[in-house]
């Protein structure tokens, strides 16, 4: 039971990260290039908002799940792992965004970094 609980903290964080990353790609592609305004700043701001949002939302979801755990030791471990999972998901979001911005440097995604 304890191991399954810890694993679910990571799974939820990575699900949130994947959803927010796809949202970042969609938003980047929806912002139009306009004369005098390429939308670079808007794309970067949205990327970083969603990167930070990934950590916050994944932690809040895991906090809600962890609140239902009645065994104190397991709950404490779950909360610790939910914090680690949230941080790791933000780092992966940023690294993946950096890599894609370099691979697709001539596209709208390429303006993230």
Q: What proportion strand?
A: under 5%
Instruction: Report the total helices.
Output: 3
Helix vs. strand class: mainly alpha
Strands, count: 0
Question: Which descriptor suits the 3D outline?
Answer: elongated
Q: What portion of residues is helical?
A: over 70%
Cα gyration radius (Å): 17 Å
The H/E string reads: HHH
Taking pLDDT < 50 over at least 5 consecutive residues as the criterion, the unreliable ranges are none
Sheet with the most strands, sense and barrel status: none
Distance N to C terminus: 42 Å
The pLDDT mean sits at 91
Walkthrough of the structure:
With 113 residues, this protein is an all-alpha fold. Helix content is 79%, strand content 0%. The protein has 3 helices and no strands. Helix 1 runs parallel beside helix 3 and helix 2 (40-67) packs antiparallel against helix 3 (72-103). The longest helix is centred in the C-terminal third of the chain and has 32 residues, at 72-103. The relative contact order is 0.20.
